[in-house]
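hey can u check if this looks right to u? its 262 residues, i copy pasted from the old doc so theres a chance i mangled smth
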Amino acid sequence: MSRIHFANKPGLVVYVTCGDPDLAVTRKVVLAAARAGADVIELGVPFSDPVADGPVIQRASERALRNGTSLADVLALARDVRQQSEVGLVVFSYLNPIMRFGMERFCREAASAGVDGVLVVDLTVEEAAEYQGFMAKHHLDTIFLAAPTSPDQRLKVIAKACRGFIYAVSRTGVTGTRQQIAGDAKDLVQRIRKYARLPIVVGFGVSSPEQFAQVGSFADAAAIGSAIVQLIEQNPGKEAQAVENFVSSLESGVKRAASSQS
């Protein structure tokens, strides 16, 4: 049974680039984020051409690849984390590493490792039939991206194909921290809700307690990636503590938002 659920609103999805700066640190960061309240961890598979990612995650991927981090290493990390935590685990990857690994083999080994779901960032729902079949066979949640530019008919198809949650991209462009959340995000969530009962997670650009609270006012959860990866980059030797402190601080933004409305 999938462990992907959000006990509180807003829920929190934390992204890490596995192997940055090394796999031992990634493990500590994942467990620290889970302790601090993250509901789901996205285990990012480093890739040489991460076209959807901004400079922070691109640098992290380059460091992880220099360390030789592979998809097999990410699955081994998931297995290790699963022995110590019931946090939801999602493999976040581009399609190429999965194709090279073998799609059915990947689904089988991901399930065996205790992974709950997979988000393949450059696999469109229209081309995902074989992948969806293997994922269903191994009881893994399929998560697809929905963008502000997606027409309603496509949102309906995406909603039907998703399990676990739907990932709503807050704006067009690449990942990265932003000063404010685009208005497109709220509109997109409202459009998706016409077709889906699954939780909707907003990502791309959420980087502060205030933005986390803002997203929580209209979505079920927020995904935070670049801000986490940047903390890891800027706190050598103290990565896990820095991430734990940041994740713990997110609740303060929610409380401040609530008190300002009361």
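Residues 173-180 have pLDDT under 50 and may be disordered.
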